[in-house]
């Protein structure tokens, strides 16, 4: 294992220490229990937004804490759910009296721990709602998940709900928006290589020199098919077809699109895939209204990409353009 | 070779096609010869800023075209200098009557081709100045370079000169600023792995399972020393010490710092290194006024990082905060 680290077990904590030093104007890192929170939290009267999950997917989630996005994020160990006490502490820290939305990716451990934290907060009189993101069309059940996994749509949900809360949407409206985003978004990923969890010290799985894994999960969970590596055009067409058929997306739709890198894939390749994707969508009269191309929800140094499409309405497009100031996503400020 | 590509020889062109589709609001890609230019070029009366170099370092340079940074960038094939006709066409396209600055990294081919282009432009009555960036403290001469290589300071020069030109600095002032930035900036890089140029199809070099290359160049040129992998704290301390001694930086200085990923290193590791760096600098009473942590000048999918420090004055700090809207760097807009 070759990584820029000190001790494998200290990686998440030392990462957060660096993040806190780099972005002291945006966020602070609280310890015991660990969570990352906006410097100005709680914002009185604003609906709070909290997310979290295992580390190793950066910039998600801790890199999305800041104005116009998350009020707090709870990072677990690498690829490991955060604990209920982290989530409870973060929720209490961001509650400005208007309640808190939990955005939870569909992994069994995450759901259980967010539910426990929500109960603890509600006992203390904080209103908490939770929306589970389950946008991955690749497989129905998976290693850590009953039902579909939560992946790229989480980034969109955090941006759009964060903007809505910043505008003054109450908890019920933010929750409804989050359900609409989840209902209208679909993703699929693929990998060229595995990744190595620091504490494990060896690759999560092995792929042959000419193989790829279609439908990979963000922790390296098996996908749909292990198959020979395809050219980017064909690879993109297959992923797009699976995503498009699922919602389904139709001619005349507008979408917010993401071509996301898994962490070890150069921008050059991601934009190449984006070009293939936009040409396919244009051919179907689907217009890409907004897009992200880059590393937004990663799996350590895994090589590969995922595609996310969100059928967007006027409300989502407007919220997308609202200012955001986080380490991982920034515009308009 | 496992990459998200179609044909190895088409990678740069297909990358640019995707970039153009994704960022049509910011830039356009011109063909025959190839360059990337701001949509609103030429801006009448504004000093033009052009850079360029081999592809494979994205987002640099083409991802830095846009308001507040470059007017145009000329991408060569992967790790290959752009040709004089590309640079000449780009320079002519951005000349708003106030002349054009060429920001050139110190590689022999780049310098030769930028010089030829500048002569051709001057024959047509366009005033051109060139500043050569040579900030890499690792080695004095290298595989493609006489003198020091140009690396991370290029990102800072493009941001700061772009802001200055946007403010209305004339060519002489922008040139002087660029020389000041180059004179006050130093960098050093290291690699954990090699990278694979698509057209070559195999890794540029080989590193053993426990080895790293200290002082690596951005094309995989040999550095100072091949040595056993060090913990991040020691690695950062060694790189920082070499950089700090060179200018030299002193207690009381303010710096703009960058911890840059080579393309295949996760954000988690880059922030961990940033934390080590800022602690070292604080111990020396050097204040980090601004910073970048992420992938800004890469070497395809190489794993590793580089550190850049720029001794910043009030002018540089103010220009740094000016708005910028490019695919690779964006704030304030």
Specify the number of helices of chain A: 8
The topology string of helices and strands of chain A comes to HEEEEHEHEHHEEEHEHEEHEE
Radius of gyration of chain A, taken over Cα atoms and rounded to an integer in Å: 19 Å
CATH homologous superfamily (4th level) name of the largest domain in chain A: Dihydroxyacetone kinase, domain 1
Query: What's the CATH topology label of the largest domain in chain A?
Result: Rossmann fold
- Tell me the name of the CATH class of the largest domain in chain A: Alpha Beta
**Which strand order do you get reading across the main beta sheet of chain A?**
1-2-4-3-5-6
**Tertiary shape of chain A:** globular
Structural class of chain A: alpha/beta
Q: Considering residues with a beta carbon less than 8 A from a beta carbon on another chain, report the largest interface and each chain's count.
A: A-B, 61 and 60 residues
Number of domains of chain A: 2
Percent in helix of chain A: 25-40%
Q: How would you characterize the largest beta sheet of chain A?
A: 6 strands, mixed
Q: What oligomeric arrangement do these chains adopt?
A: homodimer
Tally of DSSP β-strands of chain A: 14
CATH architecture of the largest domain in chain A: 3-Layer(aba) Sandwich
């Amino acid at each position: 294992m070759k990584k820029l680290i000190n001790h494998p077990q200290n990686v998440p904590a030392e990462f957060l220490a660096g993040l806190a030093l780099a972005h002291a104007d945006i966020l602070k890192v609280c310890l015991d229990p660990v969570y990352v929170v906006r410097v100005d939290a709680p914002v009185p009267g604003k609906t709070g937004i909290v997310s979290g999950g295992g580390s190793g997917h950066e910039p998600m989630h801790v890199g999305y804490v800041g104005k116009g996005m998350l009020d707090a994020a709870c990072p677990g160990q690498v690829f490991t759910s955060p604990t209920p006490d982290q989530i409870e502490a973060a929720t209490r820290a961001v509650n400005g009296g208007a309640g808190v939305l939990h955005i939870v990716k569909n992994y069994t451990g995450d759901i259980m721990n967010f539910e426990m934290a929500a109960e603890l907060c509600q006992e203390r009189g904080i209103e908490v709602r939770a929306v589970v993101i389950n946008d991955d069309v690749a497989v129905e059940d998976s290693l850590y998940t009953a039902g579909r996994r939560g992946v790229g749509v989480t980034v969109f949900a955090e941006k759009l709900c964060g903007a809505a809360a910043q505008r003054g949407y109450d908890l019920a409206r933010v929750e409804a928006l989050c359900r609409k985003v989840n209902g209208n978004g679909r993703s699929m990923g693929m990998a060229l290589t595995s990744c190595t969890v620091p504490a494990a010290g060896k690759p999560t799985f092995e792929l042959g020199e000419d193989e790829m894994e279609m439908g990979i999960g963000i922790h390296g969970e098996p996908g749909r098919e292990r198959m020979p590596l395809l050219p980017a055009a064909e690879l993109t067409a297959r992923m797009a077809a699976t995503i498009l058929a699922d919602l389904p997306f139709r001619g005349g739709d507008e979408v917010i699109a993401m071509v996301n890198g898994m962490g070890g894939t150069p921008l050059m390749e991601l934009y190449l895939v984006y070009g293939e994707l936009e040409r396919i969508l244009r051919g179907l009269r689907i217009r890409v209204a907004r897009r992200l191309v880059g590393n937004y929800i990663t799996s350590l140094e895994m090589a590969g990409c995922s595609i996310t499409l969100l059928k967007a309405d006027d409300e989502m497009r407007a919220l997308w353009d609202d200012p955001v100031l986080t380490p991982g996503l920034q515009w308009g400020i």
